[in-house]
Amino acid sequence: MKWITVRRRHPRAGYAVMLLALFGLGAGYMALMPDSTGGAEAVSSRVPLQDIREGKQLYSQSCSTCHGQNGEGTDVAPSLIGVGAAAVDLQVSTGRMPAMNPDAPQQPRKRRVFNQEETEQIAAYVQSLGGGPPIPSGSDIAYEGADVALGGNLFRANCAQCHNFAGSGGALTGGKEAPDLHDATPTQIYEAMITGPGAMPVFGGDTLSAEEKLAVIKFIVDVREEPNPGGFGLGRFGPVTEGLAGWLIGIGLLIAAALWMTAKKQHD
Amino acid sequence: MTPRTSPTRRLIGGTGTYIDERFGSANFVTRSLRKLFPDHWAFLLGEIALYSFVVLLLTGTFLSFFFEPSAEHVTYNGSYENLQGVEMSAAYASTLHISFDVRGGLLMRQIHHWSAIIFIAGIMVHMLRVFFTGAFRKPRELNWVIGVTMFILAFANGFIGYGLPDDLLSGIGLKITQGMAIGIPVVGTYVSFFLFGGEFPGTLLIPRFYILHVLLIPGILLALITAHVVIMWYQKHGNFARKRSTEKTVVGAPFYPYFVAKTGSFFMFVFGVTALMGALVQINPIWLYGPYNPAQITADSQSDFYFGFLEGAVRLMPAWEYSALGHTLTLSIVIPALVIPGLLFTVLLLYPFIEQWVTGDKRHHQLLDRPRNAPTRTGFGMAGVVFYGVLWAAAGNDLFATTFDIPLFATTWFFRIALFVGPVIAFVVAKRVCLGLQRRDRELLEHGVESGIIKRLPSGEFIEVTETPSEEAQAHLEGKKEIPQIALPARDDGGVPAPHSRGVRAKLRAALNRLYTRDEIEVVPAEHHRGEHGEAEHRELSSTE
Amino acid sequence: MSDKDTDVGRSSGGRPRRVIGTPRPTETQYLLGDDEGAAGPPATPRAERDEDPKKIKKAERVVAFFFGLSLLGSIGFVAAYIAFPVSGMAETALSNRWLGLSMAAAFLGVACGGTYWVRRVMAPRELVEEIHPMPSSVEERRDVVEYFDQGTADSRFLRRPLLRRALLAALVPLGIAPLVLFRDLGPLPGTVLRHTAWKKGMRLVVEGSGRHVRASDLAWPGSYITVIPEGFEHDLEALAKATVMLIKMRPEDLHLPPDKMAWTVDGIIAYSKICTHVGCPAGLYEQQTHRILCPCHQSTFDASRAAEVIFGPATRPLPQLPIGVDSEGYLIALSDFHEPVGPSFWERG
Q1: Could you say which of B110, B399, B408 has the minimum Cβ distance to residue A230?
Q2: Are C181 and C61 within one domain?
């Protein structure tokens, strides 16, 4: 290792280390990039009375402080009467509810607190308060055979404006943002379209038919599972990250080459 | 000729004789082969731009064998499943075909796009080097003008290329262009209708843009590059002050074989780095954007980095619009789309002449300035860099907002304020740093280098021994040239200003000159001034003990 | 700079021992140079040091290694071209990666080898050359002026005004006349920017699926969908102006003047999706705040108050399309927009 001891005090050794570190970081990221496969969860819509009772119990413990004893809403949080089981399943299964910080402009996706059974019990209770869209069942979200080209077209017409062309998310006003769709399960995407969580508008009823919703889901899932044929995808954020890469990697490497070419010789 | 010659030697000799008998070129060739090139990493930055242009020509030619510049509607049936059966333009379909049905096609597309980004970034870093070292001064002003012209053409061609594949992003880029074009006062709608051949988007723009992109602009660029390099060759490369590198002499390694080997290797570096990026980093995934449809849009609709400053300017503008007498003047378009780039490029183009006018410096400059030795220029340049940089960053304000959880409008306000405050701070800080570095240089020349040896005198006093800087270092430090000051308006006995200093222009010039030369520091102590050209008399500095 | 990185504590060549707190050795040594140390013995000239045949031989091997790498890269490139077909995303990814990497290896091998060659193998040489002043001598310049004056006189250009004026009269139009050719680049704008494809009774269809829309399709407040005029699904020029977004709000959330209220159906309001700034589709509707945001330049409109501008560079509200319901219950346009859609232009008024 003599060569390295000789060179490590070189004035440009720092740059070399930086460059190596950057490469290491990039390579590491590429190697560890999460494999984004979201499996469809089959959810049944059976609602026995027992579930509603259990759900009310859980609701009183974890939700009622903000949403009111009977889901009537408070200053902090909206009423849950009529939002339906789908909205509850979406918010609770993505971990957004119960909220850690109810005053934040928007709740982030995080580890879910309640398991699927508990979630469905709370959903059943809220459903019993005033109806609303139910949790879609397994057959409702059988998207595998849907028309992906149609889905792409609908996605670009109604979704890409907020969620970006590849579902990487985007900015909204007032500190809110349209979240990325990397981890959203088909059920959650479906629920989001029919309930319009947060700032998101509702694509319910027949504005998008059931098959069209499945086509959108199919497009989202296909695109996020499809490999980046050109190499590292740079987060699929478009030209901004590309420009940064051009400067940091492209110009960076070429300036390093120029420095090497013209550096004063080292004698050992 | 040596009696024993190898076949290669005979071939070279034979070719040489053949050419010389027809062109009498031996003298010229010798001079060219012996031409000296100074060795400094910053002098290779222009070559990044030069060679990435070659990469662009080669990859672009390949792409043109497959690309179909047409807005004709076709139904896609290539191998990308997500778009099968979708209606799109022939331009977009052929770009998909290049990406997924031509072996190496995606690679060529990616290398083409990466080298376009590196081309313009290379021009920028090269221009910064030329600016901050004062290499644009006489006799090289015209080459600077050619350079800025190429910069503008490169911008234009990059933008046009962005619009060609007719994916959603390129269509949005064209829509924004059209929206700005019709905002131009008086002629806007005509400009737009003539450019697009009618209403947006029409079918004529893509073939029109294509021919500009592949023929007209590259042709002009090629001619200007030739002129740029020939002029540089003829006027010789500038150099920093060194022991033997002065206004009258140039030090370097000869063209053959040293510079040939270096520049050849650098050529290969540019090819290699663009190929590496094309292999490993995805750029412009047009298949994800989808075909252009004027009813659709995506978040993160941004331009390539070099157009970011315009995009940012547009985002930062408040809504200013005035209507009178049946006409509408939209300042929120006119200022960012016309005034800001017009101002930026005009100042860039004219800067050598402006500085010459302010300083009155008409000397020939073979030696380059160290940035610290021209504090006002360096400060002004940094202010420009910050101004451009703020606009550039503002073009990505939505990504700042989501990445750092800042409200979107707050980022806009931050950049609005930074646009005005940032350059001022940059100017002051850069200038102060330069002056501080100059003072340190003077210190070194006056007192020598601190050697780290502490001596104790017989009296008990401790002193640190300082040593004379090496001749090489001394020559480098003493390379600073004083900036000429224009005398204040002279007055004759009756108190009447001298004729040359009357008038608004003369007063402005005197004021600017004062601004430019204020805080001037004499780096080279008066008694140590070397001969006019730094060669003749060199006095040893005595170590101060 | 021979011993830049050697241990500074070892006082080599009369170089003094470094004390903590003094400048870093590299800088000091740069400033002091390495062959002009005041007390040290004269260092070996660079050229001689570099003539060590062993080192050159070693360097030659390194260069040959890099050139060999380049050769392998080229072979690999051809191999990758043959080996990897492109028929799907995964295959394209493989093809792109290996074609690119082998190509990069081919180029970078030559690049690194060449650099190593010039730095380690070539006999070092640094030359000094005089620079000749650019300007020509006074005599040479005078010669030019004299010859030019003579030539002008010989041409009799200055003394024959008729010739001069006739030439000018011939040349100026020659430069200007061809400009008329550009007239046919496109039609004149006329009034087309003031109209869109919408007409009275035209049905709204969903962009992407082409289906008609009923008011009941947007049952929930917060519903949103992009719609276009029926029959213009593939007419990009029409879509560039006529694209509309339908938003359903609770009637109590809508704060509109009565005439514009009449253009809504059941709390469903139709705004032009074309931003009044530069014409991007401004489609980010936030159903809680009723804000419409344009993703291009972040102009923000308030959908509950006739889409008035609340932030950003846009100057005018999004135009509202009057909508109603036809006999079959489908949403229709009651007329075209009542003002030009999209960005401002000079003749807009």
Answers
A1: B110
A2: yes
